[in-house]
Write a structure and sequence with these properties.
Layout lengths: L1 E3 L3 E9 L3 E8 L16 E7 L1 H4 L2 H16 L8 E7 L2 E7 L6 H8 L4 H20 L12 E6 L2 E6 L4 H4 L3 H4 L4 E2 L7 H4 L7 H16 L9 H10 L10 H10 L10 H15 L5 H8 L25 E2 L53 H15 L65 H7 L36 H24 L2 H7 L3 H23 L9
Helix pairs in contact: 4-8, 4-11, 8-10, 9-13, 10-11, 11-12
The structure holds adenosine-5'-triphosphate.
The site of adenosine-5'-triphosphate (ATP) has 25 residues, from strand 2, strand 3, strand 4 and strand 6.
Organism: Streptomyces pilosus
Protein name: non-specific serine/threonine protein kinase
EC number: 2.7.11.1
């Protein structure tokens, strides 16, 4: 057992966060007058021992002492009470009430989401705690499920908000300008992410994220990297899950407004959530249902929100640690990335931000107070990346990722047919060598027949392409333009008229043909003689041969007449 000051003994660690380790501890003797709760010898307490890096920072120690009165006077049934602050040598510690029970992050992981009614009632109690602290001018700035402890009494869960003032303590100009940041991007308000001035509305945003997570099991914004998550806080709208009732969604959506001035005050949020819980429960009467449906009218913003002190570097709710502090735990509620910030933590939106890379070589120390906030640099870099990599439609034939290495047959150069100019989005830059794909001669780009609308382009582009399409079709000659349509001979469109015309024409032809045959052939004679077909035919053949013989006889030279 290790003593903390002369009054406390650390017994066992309860957990470790980004800013320190929380211990179960025992009171040795009654604390002095400077403590908010003197306590009794033998009493069990929780003590958060701040990390050495924080404790050894003069700014943090100064702030710790200055904030002492604020932290100690913050009392509310839903706030974990800070009983004492200990500053001794290199040690900074907060003595708190011990809360028996899991934190909300662990509870959600183990039990899954809450029902909408339970989520609304639990968040209402957190909003009560925020209302009390905001009225006292204290903004939490790091609201997240891991900072809500669940005291379990008689089967009921009583949420207690903890870590008040920790973000405030870490607001040290010396620390916030260093190159390593920790924080929880999943819960950060857009104005904090951008380093803009903050008010108590950042806590309402955090409460909205927390409420969303309570009913769905996950925060609304996630992504492949912490910066991606921050980017979504700035520009994406939360997607409404089908399981969230309308009135509850109204509350969530209002808390998650990008504009802090449109978020409700903590007091109104608490009231609104209770009205919603009454109106969406199974025993709700029509008046309660009606009130819940009109909850939007109750969610007025705070006319005078509590301001976050404008300390240099105080524009973000992250805790800041010097290099090399702590190990990275991707499953933890909050953890510190190693300085190299590998991709391991990228997928966990509740993980902390990677460290900001140091400035250009030759510059010693961190950036000066006039420089942009390191988070702004990171966000700007992320935005720049997005601007460069625009999502556009790409003709499949020009997509290097879809092309299989192909043997090229030598062809005579082909003149592409003249096409009318087509509107087409910007070309995707072709990758240069070193893309990992064999280089090959580029085939002639096919004329584009269809450029999909932008929405469809966006959906098509990011899909991974695993197959190679069949080789491009040979080009078809351009079609002659169609002649204008002739006016129909049957403008009335009488059914069957076209067919009747054909029939009449056929009858006419048959008639003429019959007449010609009758007149010009020996048919009349045949019928008149009454002979058989073959008999008549042989007669006819005999007369033809006779006729030919007569012709031959007529051509023979006449015999000489000298015999007489
Ligand atoms: N007053 C308390 N009583 C009992 N357990 C506590 C108390 N305060 C904190 N704990 C436990 O100690 C653990 C670490 O708490 P801590 O506040 O350091 O973690 P964190 O919120 O994840 O990190 P941080 O807020 O520093 O980013 C938590 O799992 C929490 O359950």
């Amino acid at each position: 057992m290790r003593p903390v000051g002369s009054k406390y003994l650390l017994e066992e660690p309860l957990g470790r966060g980004a800013t320190g380790t929380v211990w179960r501890a025992r009171q040795r003797e009654t604390a002095g007058a400077e403590a908010a709760v003197p306590g009794q010898p033998g009493e069990t307490v929780a003590i958060k021992v701040l990390k050495e890096e924080l404790a050894s920072d003069a700014d943090v120690v100064m702030r710790f002492l200055r904030e002492r009165s604020v932290l100690l006077r913050l009392t509310h049934p839903n706030i974990v009470r800070v009983r004492d602050l200990v500053v001794e040598g290199d040690l900074l510690a907060l003595v708190m009430d011990l809360v028996e029970g899991p934190d909300l992050h662990r509870y959600l992981r183990e039990n899954g989401p809450l029902t909408p009614v339970a989520a609304a009632l639990l968040t209402a109690q957190i909003a009560d705690a925020l209302g009390a602290s905001h009225a006292d001018g204290v903004v939490h700035r790091d609201l997240k499920p891991a900072n809500v402890l669940l005291r379990q009494t008689g089967g009921e869960m009583h949420p207690m908000l903890t870590d008040f003032g920790i973000a405030r303590l870490a607001d040290s100009p010396g620390l916030t300008r260093t190159h390593e940041f920790v924080g929880t991007p999943a819960y950060i308000a857009p104005e904090s992410a951008e380093g803009r001035p903050q008010t108590s509305a950042v806590d309402i945003y955090g409460a909205g994220i927390l409420l969303y997570e309570l009913v769905t099991g996950r925060p609304p914004f996630s992504g492949g990297s912490a910066l991606e998550v921050l980017h979504q806080h700035l520009s994406a709208e939360p997607r409404r899950p089908s399981t969230v009732p309308d009135p509850l969604w109204t509350v969530i959506e209002r808390c998650l407004r990008k504009n802090p001035g449109e978020r409700p005050s903590a007091e109104n949020l608490a009231r609104g959530l209770r009205v919603v819980a009454d109106g969406i429960g199974v025993h709700a009467n029509s008046a309660q249902i009606g009130a819940a449906e009109n909850v939007g009218a109750l969610l007025a913003p705070d006319p005078a929100p509590a301001q976050v002190p404008d300390a240099p570097g105080a524009a973000d709710p992250t805790q800041v640690l010097p290099h090399g502090a702590g190990g990275y735990d991707p499953n933890g509620a909050t953890s510190v990335l190693p300085q190299t910030g590998g991709p391991a933590g990228a997928a966990d939106p509740t993980a902390v931000l990677p460290p900001v890379p140091p400035g250009p070589p030759g510059q010693s120390g961190g950036p000066g107070p006039e420089d942009p906030h390191p988070w702004q640099n990171q966000l700007r870099a992320a935005r720049d990346r997005n601007e460069q990599t625009q999502v556009q439609y790409l003709d499949p034939n020009e997509d290097p990722l879809r092309r299989r290495p192909q043997r090229q047959v030598a062809r005579p150069p082909q003149q592409p047919p003249q096409q009318p100019p087509q509107r087409r989005p910007q070309q995707q830059p072709q990758p240069g060598p070193g893309y990992g794909y064999p280089q090959q001669p580029q085939p002639q780009p096919q004329p584009q027949r269809y450029a999909p609308p932008p929405e469809r382009q966006r959906r098509q582009q990011p899909q991974p392409q695993r197959y190679a399409p069949p080789p491009p079709e040979p080009q078809r000659p351009a079609r002659e333009p169609r002649p204008p349509r002739q006016r129909s001979a049957n403008p009335m469109r009488i059914p069957g008229l076209g067919c009747l015309k054909g029939c009449l024409f056929t009858v006419l032809i048959l008639f003429v043909a019959g007449w010609l045959v009758w007149e010009l052939s020996p048919l009349q004679d045949w019928i008149g003689t009454g002979k058989g077909y073959w008999e008549q035919l042989s007669d006819w053949f005999g007369s033809v041969t006779g006729w030919i013989e007569d012709l031959g006889g007529a051509e023979e030279p006449s015999a000489p007449s000298g015999t007489n």
